[in-house]
């Protein structure tokens, strides 16, 4: 019995001493936190997605209060959060336009021929390293879903046609899919952007092979350039590139494209 009592007394004494030391250390090493940092942190989305370019929401909150990051940097929160941050800091929200992910490939199972049966590690990165992807088109979507796995907002899923599908109601433009895609097929665009866009990333100049490998691949015919009344479209490195400061969404290039490579953004981002 004496041993039990002694053990309890020693345990309580040790706990008291440790608690006292922790309290002393807390006072010695205490760092005052700017109340604005806490206020900004409270209005963030809390996703810790890294889309802002910082390690997480805490790091972003500290950076935006220091003036090192823009109030519109929280892609998960979008314009609403940007406005609240700006009000806390008493600054302008800046460009808070919502951005979403766009896949520049239409090479589905039906359109793009497979390279063969891939039996390796079932990730796009592994297939890219091992056999340069799963399709004969070296620029096409691998289709093993690295982008969908990386999306923290459940805005990406793999379709039955072998291509990732973006749910634009959920997409916050965090850019995770942009970073993980080994073919670099994703880009971030403003959700309300209008104009034509090429859903193909094939830069090869081997026209017969392009068509053989994928029925919706851009064959660099240049008809889109010729048909554009605003002269805002130029085929650059094998891909139609649009100057959106001139594009009027007339759709003439879309109608003229023989391979249906060009589409209007306002019809894609829905």
The coarse overall form would be elongated
> Count of DSSP E strands?
8
**Strand order in the sheet with the most strands:** 1-4
Gyration radius (Cα, Å) is 26 Å
- Pick out the low-confidence regions: none
Task: Estimate the helix proportion, in percent.
Answer: 25-40%
Structural class: alpha+beta
Can you give the mean pLDDT?
A: 89
The helix-strand sequence is HHHHEHHEEHEEHHEEHEH
Taking the sheet with the most strands, its summary is: 2 strands, antiparallel
Strand proportion, as a percent range, falls in 5-15%
Distance separating the two termini: 75 Å
Q: How many distinct helices?
A: 11
What does this structure look like?
The chain has 270 residues and is an alpha+beta fold. Helix content is 36%, strand content 11%. It is built from 11 helices and 8 strands. The protein has helices at 2-28, 35-43, 57-66, 78-89, 124-131, 146-150, 176-180, 207-213, 223-227, 252-256, 265-268; strands at 99-103, 156-158, 164-166, 186-190, 196-198, 233-236, 239-242, 262-264. The strands form 4 sheets. It has a two-stranded antiparallel ribbon with strand order 1-4. Strand 6 (233-236) and strand 7 (239-242) form a beta hairpin. Helix 2 packs across helix 3. The protein starts with a helix and ends with a helix. 34% of the residues are buried. The model has no long low-confidence stretch (mean pLDDT 89).
């Amino acid at each position: 019995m004496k041993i039990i009592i002694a053990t309890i007394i020693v345990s309580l004494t040790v706990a008291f001493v440790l608690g006292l030391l922790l309290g002393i250390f807390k006072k010695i090493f205490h760092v005052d936190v700017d109340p604005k940092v806490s206020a900004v942190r409270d209005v963030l989305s809390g996703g810790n997605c890294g889309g802002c370019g910082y390690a997480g929401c805490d790091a972003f909150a500290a950076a935006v209060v220091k003036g090192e990051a823009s109030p519109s940097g929280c892609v998960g929160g979008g314009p609403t959060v940007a406005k609240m941050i700006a009000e806390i800091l008493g600054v302008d929200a800046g460009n808070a336009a919502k951005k979403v992910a766009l896949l520049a490939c239409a090479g589905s199972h039906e359109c793009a021929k497979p390279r063969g049966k891939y039996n390796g590690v079932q990730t796009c990165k592994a297939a890219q390293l091992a056999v340069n992807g799963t399709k004969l088109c070296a620029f096409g979507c691998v289709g093993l879903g690295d982008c969908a796995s990386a999306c923290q907002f459940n805005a990406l899923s793999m379709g039955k046609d072998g291509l990732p599908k973006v749910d634009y109601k959920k997409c916050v433009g965090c850019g995770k899919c942009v970073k993980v895609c080994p073919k670099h097929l994703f880009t971030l665009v403003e959700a309300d952007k209008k104009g034509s866009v090429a859903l193909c990333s094939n830069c090869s100049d081997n026209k017969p092979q392009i068509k053989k490998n994928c029925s919706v691949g851009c064959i660099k015919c240049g008809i889109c350039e010729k048909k554009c009344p605003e002269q805002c479209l130029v085929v650059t490195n094998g891909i139609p590139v649009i100057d959106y400061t001139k594009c009027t969404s007339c759709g003439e290039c879309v109608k003229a494209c023989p391979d249906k490579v060009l589409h209007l953004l306002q019809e894609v981002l829905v």
